[in-house]
Design brief:
The chain is mainly alpha-helical. The protein has one domain: Hypothetical protein af1432 (Orthogonal Bundle). Strands 1-2 form a two-stranded antiparallel ribbon. Strand 1 and strand 2 form a beta hairpin.
Length: 155
Amino acid sequence: MFDRKVKKDMRLYGSKILDSKEFHEALQQKHHMRASVGRHSIRVTEASLRMSYALEKLGVKTDRESLVVGGLCHDLGMLGRKEKYKNASETCRQHPRDSVEMARRLAPELSDKTKNMIESHMFPLNGKAPNSLEGAILTVADKYVSVKDLIFGRK
């Protein structure tokens, strides 16, 4: 039921990101052993939107544009990670900030809310908590999809 709505919202708010050279690179870079950064980011965005639709049925409105931009960009700072970071700990700490910089290039109108969502998506590992409902949604969606990526993988 939500699949058409998810695709529509992703295209509406994320087409510039999805069509970018950087996102196409992300579709090629491995992530969580079995996925790519791009496929993982798409699945995080899909999960975030599904949570948004469920909350809407309960009368809770969310900012879908922030969910799409944040979801698609949250790990793009990892592009070239083997050359950029010394180890997994540095990757965990630094990639959210690098992802914000990438998001600013791909979505120059990046809101402060979306910036915080991307910076805090590693909570509690990086200590920076999200300051919005959308940030909490993205953080939960990222953990959920990451576990699925690690356990089940995805073609």
